[in-house]
Amino acid sequence: xxxxxxxxxxxxxxxxxxxxxxxxxxxxxxxxxxxxxxxxxxxxxxxxxxxxxxxxxxxxxxxxxxxxxxxxxxxxxxxxxxxxxxxxxxxxxxxxxxxxxxxxxxxxxxxxxxxxxxxxxxxxxxxxxxxxxxxxxxxxxxxxxxxxxxxxxxxxxxxxxxxxxxxxxxxxxxxxxxxxxxxxxxxxxxxxxxxxxxxxxxxxxxxxxxxxxxxxxxxxxxxxxxxxxxxxxxxxxxxxxxxxxxxxxxxxxxxxxxxxxxxxxxxxxxxxxxxxxxxxxxxxxxxxxxxxxxxxxxxxxxxxxxxxxxxxxxxxxxxxxxxxxxxxxxxxxxxxxxxxxxxxxxxxxxxxxxxxxxxxxxxxxxxxxxxxxxxxxxx
Length: 379
Prior knowledge:
Blueprint: E1 35-37, H1 46-70, E2 75-77, H2 85-96, E3 104-106, H3 109-154, E4 159-162, H4 166-177, E5 185-189, H5 192-200, E6 204-207, H6 213-218, E7 226-229, H7 234-247, E8 252-257, H8 263-269, E9 273-276, H9 277-290, H10 292-301, E10 308-314, E11 330-336, E12 339-342, E13 356-362
Parallel strand pairs: 4-5, 4-7, 5-6, 7-8, 8-9
Antiparallel strand pairs: 1-6, 2-3, 10-13, 11-12, 11-13
Helix pairs in contact: 1-2, 1-3, 9-10
C-alpha cells in the first residue's frame, strides 16, 4: 500500500483560475464527464447562431404578414370574407410553412402578383433559414464525428500530457521546440477551460480524470510513445502513472512530484524518470545565490530553442573511435546501454556507434549564452 506525502498548501490563499495555478487543476474530479476535443477555429456559439436565425425567421414572418395586411382587400377569407391583422399573420404562417389550408386566398390581381414576386421568395428564405440551421447542425456533428474517427485511426507514437498547468505547458513547449508537431500532442485535464486553452493552442484535448483508464484510452495512451505526467498532487501522479503503465508497457513515462520522498513511489509505479519540482527549483535558487552567472547558464540550458541547448544525439560514423574530448561538440555525458557515464569516465575509452552523446550546442549562432542578457550583481 502506497503512502504518499502531500505538500503543504496555503489555505488562506485565494484560489486562482485553472490556467493561472502553478501546477494545473486537481485531477480527482470524478464527476466530470470525459470527452475528446480537437483543435478548431473559434466560431460563434451554436445557441447564439440558432437564436439569430430564429429571429431572422420571425422578421420574415412579420414582413410577410404586413405585406398581406396592406393588400388585405385583395384576399378573401372563407369564414367572414374579411382579412384583419390576425388573419394576415395566420395567412403568413401557413403560407411560409407551406401548409396552405386554402381558407384565405388571394383573389385580386395585385394580391396574386404579390404572392408571386414577394411572398414566394420570402417563403423560400424562411425555409432556408430554418431548414438550413438544422442541416448545418447535422452536418457539423457528422463532420466532427468523422474528424474524431480519422484522428483516432491516425494517432500513434504521440505524446500525452496529463495536467496542463505551468509544468505541463512548459514541458510540451520544450518538446515541441525540438520538432514535435502539435498534432502529435494530446492534453488530458479535468477542466473545460484548460482543455479549451489547449485546443486554442493547437493541441487535441481530452477532458476527464486521468486516474480513470477510460479517459486515458480516449487519449490513445496505449499507442503513445511518451507520457508526461504533471498533475497538482503527488498521489494523483502515482495513480495516473500506475494506470498509464498498465495500458502501455513500452511508453516512456516522465512524471513530476512536489515532494522528493515521493519520487521512489513514482519509479515503482512505472515512471522512467521523475522530476522533483520543488527541490529542483530550490537547487537552482541556491546555485544562483552562490553564482548568479552559473544560475543564468543553467536557466538557459533548460530553455529549449534559444542560446545554449542540452541535447542527446547518436554518435556519427566520423566520431566512432575517438574520445569524448576529441569531437567538436561539448560532450557532457555518454549514454552506453543503460548507463550514463561522465565525459571523463575512463571506462568510456573510445566512442562506439551504439553510444549516444549528451552535448551542449548553440541553438542559434547569433544568440549569446543567455536569451536575455542580464547584468550580474556587482561584487
